[in-house]
Target: F-box domain-containing protein
Amino acid sequence: MFPFDVPIFPAAEASAAQQRAFLVEIASTINEFRKSLEQLEDMERDVTATLAAVKYPVLTLPNEITSRIFVGCLPNDGHVLPTPSAAPLLLAQICRHWRQVALSTCALWSSFDLPGSGDGSAFLLETWSTRAKGYPLSLTFSGRGHNLRQEYLRPISAQLRELELVAQGAYPNNPCHKIGKERDSFL
Model:
């Protein structure tokens, strides 16, 4: 269990001299453990410093090229699902540099598909439109019972390039609206 020989505890009947000798052995073993721990901590610092000095070739690419690669990671159909397991959110989680590049690449945030219902719609719309920084937005709302409200769309209406409403199944209480910039009364 221990990397060193641990002294065997003397019986309770051992003399005081034997007990004192045992304490000396314990102190010696503790010192050996401390020295080993210090050596391991030194090794850990060395390995950490070596890893910190590693330059990954992908991190030396100009940001413009990295941005183009990131945009190439988006789905071909233009329907970006706001999930942490796919671009662009996944790319922003890799490292500090990639997060900076992803957040500054407006095209990554220019479209998304908001499936299903949820109260996070307003937050997602605001987040995506802010990160798109004025870049035209293409939004798709799909799923049953989506709680699409005018107040969600009104702040980003000038930024909208395309808005698609996909009805899945019957919507008896939520009819689909045809939305375009010419229908200012809706937006």
About this structure: The beta strands are 111-115, 137-142, 160-166. The first helix runs from residue 16 to 53. Residues 1-54 form one domain.
